[in-house]
Amino acid sequence: MTEYSRSNHQFAVELHGITKRFPGVIANHDIELLVRPATIHAIVGENGAGKSTLMKTLYGMHQPDEGTITVNGSLAQFKTPTDAIAAGIGMVHQHFMLADNLTITENIILGDEPVDGRGRINFKEARQRIETLMKSLGATFDPNTNVSELGVGQRQRVEILKVLYRGAKILILDEPTAVLVPQEVEELFTTLKRLVADGATVIFISHKLDEVLAYCDEITVIRQGTTVARTTPSQVNRRSLAELMVGSDLPDPSGRETKVGTEIQLQVTGLNLASDIVGAKLALEDINVAVHSGEIVGIAGVEGNGQFELCESILGLRSILSGSISVCGQELSHTETRDRINMGLSYIPFDRHREGLLLDAPLWENTFLGREENPALTNGPFISPRKIEADCRSIIERFGVLTPSEHVPAFALSGGNQQKLVVGREMASDPKILLAAHPTRGVDVGAQAAIWDELRHARDKGLGVLLISADLEELIGLSDRILVMFDGRITAQLDPATATPEMLGSFMTGEEQGAAQ
Amino acid sequence: MKFFKSLTTGQRTIALSLGFMLVLSIVRLFTNADDLTSSGTISSTLRVATPILLAGLAGVWAERVGIVNIGIEGMMIIGTWFGGYGAWKWGSWAGIGLAIIAGSLVGLLHALATVRFDVNHVVSGIAINILAAGTTEYLSIIFFKGQQGGGESQSPAGKGGYGQFDMPFLSGGRIGSWHSPDMMGWIEKKHNLLLLPDLAGFVRGLCSDIYIPTIVAIALVPITAYILWRTRFGLRVRSSGESPQAGESLGVPINRLRYQAMAISGGLAAFGGAYLSCVFTSTYRQGQTGGQGYIGLATTIFGNWTPFGVFRGAILFGFPSALKFRDEKNVPALLLVIAVILVAAAVVSLLKNKQLLATGLLMGAAVSAATYFLVDTVPQEFVAATPYIVTILVLAGAQQQLRPPAYAGIAYRAGENH
Amino acid sequence: MKNQRLQRMLVTSASSLLAVFVALCICAVILLITGKDPIQAYSTLFGAAGDIKVLQGTLNRATPLMISAAAVAIGFKMNLFNIGVEGQMRVSLLATAVAGAAIHLPAPLHVLFCLVVAMATGALWAAFAGWLKVKRGVNEVISTIMLNFVALSLVAWAFDAFFRVDSTTGSLLVKTKELPTSAWFPDIVDRRLNGMFFVAVLVLVLFYILVWKTKFGFQLRASGANPGASRVTGVNPKRMIMISMLLSGALAGLVGMRALLGDVHAYQNNLAEQQGFNGIAVALLGRNHPLGIFISALLFGYLGEASGRLQLIDIPKEITTIMTGIIVLAVVIINEAVKRWDDRRIQHKAALALEAVAVAA
What we know:
Chain B is mostly helical. Helices cover 70% and strands 1% of the residues of chain B. In chain C, strand 1 (187-189) and strand 2 form a beta hairpin.
């Protein structure tokens, strides 16, 4: 098993002109990807650039609308992942698919068990095969251990073993380092180098530029759904790679007047938050943020660097280790979420389906959610459907939510209109401070413009906004100041008027760490 | 402690069992409750425990594949009826066979509702319990009413037995026409000795008055373990209850497995029911299960979703009833047994530096012991409630040690999870 | 466009009706197979509807069903499955019988006192399950099943050991000390229709107002529909679980009161048996809505009352139990299928309406 058959073909994987459309969006268009055999090939791009769609195409999880896939010189059509597996392609998903209460061996052999004639598993044979594979990987765990006892890095190793066990020679790893600590990252790449030395081909999806530059042989950059460059680490540096990734056509933030007031609406000082994982480093470390009235403070950063935890801490949904949070000068430490909302805090959540909407409930109930203490919508302890419906209609009108009426259930609306409804609800109670997490994610251009206008308008009337976004255009176009979050800390403060894509890119990827305010 | 940890699981089980035996023996000497470890009690424990064991195994098969089975009670009820009917019409073995077929069909119905139609597992289980009760009562009136020995709520007596036998030498069984000596019976009567008569009673209890269905049921424990942990089918069943996505992504046919495992689950539960109407007694009676399906569910939890754990639970839950069954006066001695065990547990937790827990355990021991000296009999109701209380305590106190299948009871639709 | 809600209700009602129809069909097949005439059976079963006594009996039987269904439904609204209504009812039955017989109060106060005791003890028993879920993470389905049996044993023991009064009339039935007449819930139609029926209707009305018309009810429904969304608005899920469990238990306490205060006037074994369990079927068929529960309770009450007549034509009345089981399965299956179809319909209609708007603009 140590000797992979060396391919005679020039490329292990060739994609030409791949286009994939989803209703209303073109996720990929005109993709060109050439991967040499026995190399580590990185595919880099921002969140939402279309990397995952591309990999799902290659793994047979859906079919492209146009274009061709060639594997080891022969044209391929994958209807299901099983076809891809048969062609020697294996995928290590970002979210592991492992059964916790089964052993490593059981997880690896599941679905392809070595059995005798009576269905009895030949564990000896399985163990031998797995141990050979483990040797080639340099893994050292006991294959009889339960997966539940493994750390994240080891689980990933098991996922790779699963793929190798099925004879894959082309491995796709979807953001494999997102969940790893630095030492584990190093171990992962040592493992991958061994595999490549044995003849395997690795396709490595990432947005962490330093890893890509340090370990990969070739790089394909993908931006806004299409491939924009194919290069090697020796031909680029971090800055130029960041620029390729982010693009250079950013909006011009000049020509707008700032209305930032002097009053501090939101003050976060010395905030520390423990991680969910016992023993890991802090999820948030010494966060200091102040948002003034009439100010939009943008938080830039690759997802998973503490933005979510920051919002939950401000809302009082997590108990913080130390530090203080105040809204309009009032300290919040010992108040519950509900009180904080009543004091003028408002929240556009990260995921409108999971945290923003009651999908089966009519729109008017959705616009009432979280506003049960609003006297304009209630009669004492009773809700007032009449008032709530009128309020809902005014939100629908003001934010241009396209809907037949306020009585349709929320699931009947398109994503953009659902988002407008959530934004409208959160702004309807005239909050003092708005936490806006990706307010225009997954929204069409028209809805995006409408939401931006509303945010600007409210800002001009004195609202303080903490804007969390992965969309640089949004951040630069709206923010009065931009803070960059990396690894649970605020690592830089930038002026949107002077910020360049390379600057943002290098701060966001942690390559540079400026002085926090 | 260190020594104990160095033992293998099997050795530990033996050591713990011997320790438990010793406790029983000491308490027996102290209280003169000779039935505590008599062969009669042991063999009656086996008979009481068998239906619970089968119901518990039904729970293991269902939950391991990812389906919560509240309908075990209903499947048992079906088993009692068809067991009674089959035994009456064609003889006792046919009764058990018919019951298993009927139970498997009910298991498949539960699978159909939960897998194909996405019905909440608990709702489907409740519906099955109602259906089973209604169907059996209806059928009884149609088939049993007016028959010789039968009635609206009772079947006529079943035909034929099961070849009940005693082991030669160990419990005086016959070889040919010759009565072998009853060696264990002889030792068992030396009541003033420590441990020896108890062990003899235990062995003799296992070897006398044996029914073949009991042996089959007990054999199903290692067989279930073997299938679940040693075969491809078993591995796939467990993966379906742990992480169906993982299985599906590797080409495992999750839905088909769920039907298969539920048929097994239903068959086992119905076997348990038939045991009640064909072996334990020889007629079907309405309400015969008396909630034993739920005790089975409790042993599934108590036994940590493993067949051997279920076996332990069934014995533990069956023991007080069997004791009660033989002579009510023996039951209070159990309070002393509990007290001694609680003291032992307190010592262990003190060694582990858990003072608070130890204090609680000691207090429990004190209460238990004090009760022994204050009462003459333990009310039947307390014996009946024990399995449920123990299960609640285990769930509340030892949840960290429990490993339920991660996906049991969660709606899963194949092909929608990419 | 307000008829959107009405349409949804119609669709829901239609699926429940369809479930009943399916159950009738399947039972007809069962009757045929076992050599009985389904037409004769159903005409006897439903022919009893003209009898005023049957109708009064129906209301009497529907009384506890309405309350226990409401107890189950309030849990369902919060995604909680309280299977423990039966056990909670049993605990409150004995406690109320004992407490009610121990004191003397003027009539209306005495009845009120009994109802309060019943609700308090029912809630207390349910609180166990709530506590186990909130503090120890124990699934409420398992804990309430186990607590049902514990309640059964505990109550049987306490009754037997402390509270039974041997009959003076030579009857074999042992009971607790009889409640003074001041604690009796009066009949509306003497010996035929008990006033608790109106309490049950009141419970449903209050249930409707609480769940659909108050701020608390809105939070309860939101919490059940999307715990994530209601969490970020500051609704504490654990507190909601505890409150709904207590409310459910309090209603469970009321379930047995028609039998206790309105009929037997003392606790005895088997009093109000199964009335807690049967609420689950009623709540499922009624889709957890008070109006649906009311109608379903009447249906099940009627089946229970009229089924006796089947025996006159030599058909086992247990066919109605089979019917109940099939209804429970059929209603969830059909409702799920119909909901999928209706969701698509609504989505399609909304899309069409929007296109029309876009074309106009």
